[in-house]
Every structure is written in structure tokens, then in C-alpha cells.
Amino acid sequence: MFISLRGNKYIGSYFTASSGSREKNITIILLILSDIYFLKICYLEEKCLKYITNSDKETLELGERIGAYLRSGDMVALIGGLGSGKTLFTKGIALGLGLGPETIITSPSFTLVNEYDCGRVFYHMDLYRLEGLSDMLLTGLDEYLDAGGVVVMEWADRWPAILPENRVEVRFEILDEQRRDISISGEGPRGMEIIEGLKGTDQLIAHS
Ligand SMILES: Nc1ncnc2c1ncn2[C@@H]1O[C@H](COP(=O)(O)OP(=O)(O)OP(=O)(O)O)[C@@H](O)[C@H]1O
Ligand SMILES: [Mg+2]
């Protein structure tokens, strides 16, 4: 169920994006394989945390808890369809990083990157409109990942090759109007460390 739901959605978006049928078939196979890989690593090996949020506020708070763990050089890759909660989650991260609630965080769909100063630099990127960008702009993007700030990237699955080895991946599924399924996994030693930290706050909440 999980695989076919995710698969259908992504296959849908890639069908409109790519042209040749051979390319489409390869894309479909790769997406299904990546889903199976994610499922195995995430759930069977218990390397991921899974949450259901029931409101905007709960998604915001989850983002804030991760944000509080991030330090310069960390990267969070957000993956999920339109309106699944990526920007809202990013607003939560911004709060956790120490930005005040008065700071307006909007999806940088046209500018690709928004930059904020919260004692350290916070880059909010959105790769939704990645297709059709010139090579020059694309080359500029990866420099943000090495710039030593905290990077949060929406639609990170649009350019998997750019993702650093150490990262947190957050996957969003829309369950219904108010509920989101949010799976958080850590890649690389630093990604795992952040997940362990987050697990710790789960326990604190459970015991309080
Ligand atoms: N539990 C929930 N968590 C997050 N958002 C929710 C939830 N329930 C309802 N919503 C609504 O879903 C929408 C999420 O919008 P948001 O801009 O965060 O999505 P997005 O994934 O960034 O979309 P896009 O891909 O267009 O940038 C908001 O309108 C929000 O009010
Ligand atoms: Mg968004």
C-alpha cells in the first residue's frame, strides 16, 4: 500500500516531466526500487521515526524539535507532494533554530533560495522549479550546501545527486485534510546523530 501510493504519485509527476517511454520505464523502476529500499532501511532496520500529525500546529512543533538539534553544516531534505506540509515544517525548523515567530518563512519557489540570519546562516531552498534552469544557476545551488550554513531543501528528490552524505530526510504523505504521515530518517553519521537526539525528546515527552 505504502509503495503503491508513493509510487503512483511520483510516477504521475515524472510522466509529465520526461519524454521518451524508455526513460519513463527506467524512472518508474528506479522510483519503485528507491521506495523498497527506503521501506527496508527505514522500517525493518528501525532507522527512522514515524509520526502522524493531526494539525498544522503538530507539524510545526515537530519541525521545531528538529530545528533545535541542527547546527551549522547540517542539511535536511524534505520530500513530499504539493501541500503535504514541507514549508510548514520548515517554519518549525526556523523556530527551533531561534528565528522569531515574526520572521516570515515562505517557499522560495521562484528565488530557489532564501537566506536568514539566526546567529548562524539558514538557507531555505525549494527545487520545485528546477527543470529548465540553466547550468550556471544549477552550479550555484550546490555551493549553498558547502557554505557552512543550515540547509533545508524542499523537493529534495528532484536532484538526488546534489544531496550530501550526511543529512536528515523527511518524507511527507497526505493522509487527509488535517493529517500528515511524516517519516524522518538519518543518513550518514551526523544524520543518525540528529535522529538519535530526536528519539531522546520522544522519550522525554513519553515520560513527562
Ligand atoms: N497536519 C498538517 N501538517 C501540515 N500541513 C497541514 C496539516 N493539516 C493541514 N495542513 C495544510 O496543508 C498545507 C501545507 O502547506 P505547505 O505550504 O506547508 O505544503 P508544501 O509541502 O510546502 O507544499 P508545496 O510543495 O506547494 O511547497 C497548509 O495549507 C496547511 O494548513
Ligand atoms: Mg512548500
Provide tags for this entry.
single chain; 208 residues; alpha/beta; Rossmann fold; 6 helices; disordered N terminus; binds adenosine-5'-triphosphate; binds magnesium ion
Major sheet description:
7 strands, mixed
- The stretches of 5 or more residues where confidence is low (pLDDT under 50) are 1-19
Query: What is the strand content?
Result: 15-25%
Report the total helices: 6
According to DSSP, the number of beta strands is 7
Strand order of the largest sheet: 1-7-6-2-5-4-3
How many domains is the backbone divided into? Answer: 2
How is the CATH topology of the largest domain named? Answer: Rossmann fold
String of helices and strands: HHEHEHEEHEEEH
The CATH architecture assignment of the largest domain turns out to be: 3-Layer(aba) Sandwich
CATH superfamily of the largest domain: P-loop containing nucleotide triphosphate hydrolases
Q: Which small compounds were modeled alongside the protein?
A: adenosine-5'-triphosphate, magnesium ion
Measure the end-to-end span: 35 Å
Shape: globular
CATH class of the largest domain: Alpha Beta
Structural class: alpha/beta
Radius of gyration: 17 Å
